[in-house]
Amino acid sequence: MENSPIKILLIEDIQEDILRAQLMLSDVKGMKYEISPVASASVGLEKLEKESYDAILLNLLLKDNTGLESLLRIQERAPHAPVIILTAKEDQALAFEAVRKGAQDYLVKGKLDGNLLNQVIHYAIERHRVMEEMKKKNEELERLNSMKSEFVSTVSHELRTPLTVVLSASNNLLDGAFGELSQSQKKWVHKINQHAQRLHQMISDILDLSKLQSGKTEIHRNQLDMVKLIKSTVANLKILSKEKKIDLNYRLPDTLPPIWADKNRIDQVLTNLITNAIKFTLKEGTIEVSALESGGFVQVTVSDSGPGIPADSQQAIFDRFRQIRTMGDPASSTKGIGLGLAICREIVTQHSGEIWVESEIGKGAQFTFKLPIGTASLQAAGANILVVDDDEEICKFIEAVLEQKNHRVTIAKNGNQAIQYIDNAQPAFDIVFLDLMLPGANGVEIIKAIHKKSTRPEIVVITAYPNSDLLFEGMAFGPLTIIAKPFDPEAILDMAERKLSSYKKSK
Amino acid sequence: MKESSNRKKKIKVLLIEDDKDILETVRITLERNGFIVRPLSHGRDALSTAIKIKPHVIVTDIMMPAPDGFEICRTLRACDETKNIPIIFLSARTQPLDVDTGFKAGADRYLTKPFQNEDLLNAIKGLAK
Questions:
Q1: Alpha-carbon distance B114 to nearest alpha carbon in chain A (angstroms)
Q2: Which of A18, A460, B1, B90 is deepest in the core (most CB within 10 A)?
């Protein structure tokens, strides 16, 4: 680095600031800078066409008035060079927005010296390089992943054709299409057919799991009554349990709060757990399905009186192609459980839930999964939102916008009132829209109060002219989302939706 | 249709499938269940055969050398004499997108391979009127 100069494209139309930057950077010891100043974004773009630079310094308030638009175009033209925004103090809202749109950093002109500028440029170059590398690696991973699922899909399709012949022909044989079979011929054709069916199941499972893992499966969520689902799934599986004289029953409360889930997928999980239990439980054993509400979740347990699962394989059975080594029924111990539990885990995880097993050798196994409640009511009835602003007009406006989408809005007109509401809210707020400059306790104190809570609402700061000090103080507690005044009502709704979904994910 | 006056009609199926083994084994299954089957190992004669024998139901594979099942389906739907004949796709392609394309091409049912005998038989019986 010492030998070759660092090439900087400086897009700035204030002559004095150009000179100042040149002077500062010529002052840095052991560093050589080669600065090419241009007075407009369009000339800058032309330069970038012909030459490559190590970093770009950009004033967002050029006289040609292209602002963020020019930032995006520069990034498009020179994705490998970091952009550092130069700003006067009063433009910080714009600078924040620029950083959000991909600028590496921003500098307040008045507070600059050569060493700081040198340091920021170096960090920006390094950071940008790492980010670009990560982006490349991510793209490569995504490409590999999609290749993998395409491969699985092709293979599964290719396997289906020969399998169709095996199944169909053996069915015809069993059906007597080619004459009566002897007892042992029948037995073995039947086995061919059975194993081909298992193969078919496996192929379907591999495809299903691969699609679930690649995120290509759509989860169709709806309000779901677990009590009802368990009753119907158990009824459907009675035929299977009767074959082994297993007592399959359920123990359920009268009602459970609804969850927000894909009925077919949860049915798949339940069916899988119960069929596994039937498979591994000895004749005349018992299987019980129970459910309860606990800590914001609906929790479902399938308990069997089977031989149990050794402690050291309790984790592994949720992995692909693991098989339970049972102590009991030798016939069942040879059967793999294949991908069923891996699929269950994938489905439950995609519903923000958890699945696990508890078991002791000789004492059966209890498979439990839990799924969050409350998301359904959030989705249907909107979020619980606090709006804090001393301007009554703005409060009324935001309230009207949010209530259109069924969000429940509480208004606080000063900081103390806001803190009181936050402390006593039942249920807790999901989102707080917040002005920072308030009578009474200011916005930072509200943010502080929010961060003391165990269930923390999402914070969105709405502000007319971001007073940098307050904003920085607020950010010390964690990242903040900012909406600048004047704002578009869509921005508020959009933010509510986005915050709501990220809030739910983190729950 | 005029068959309604017949006392006992046998259901006539046009079966199109390029895998000869599948073609034969499905034909056997259908015949053993009382259907009359006209097997075709490619789709080139699908339209002319359909016009000639007037099947009650057409069962066709999708992935075949041209014309493939989607194309066959569109051709049959575009012709007045065949546009009302029910079509069942029997395909190893199981992706939702394939199923969607199948229905958009004008299919009445979409069954995946390997199929359950019952499903295929019920589908044919249900569609043959």
A1: 4
A2: B90
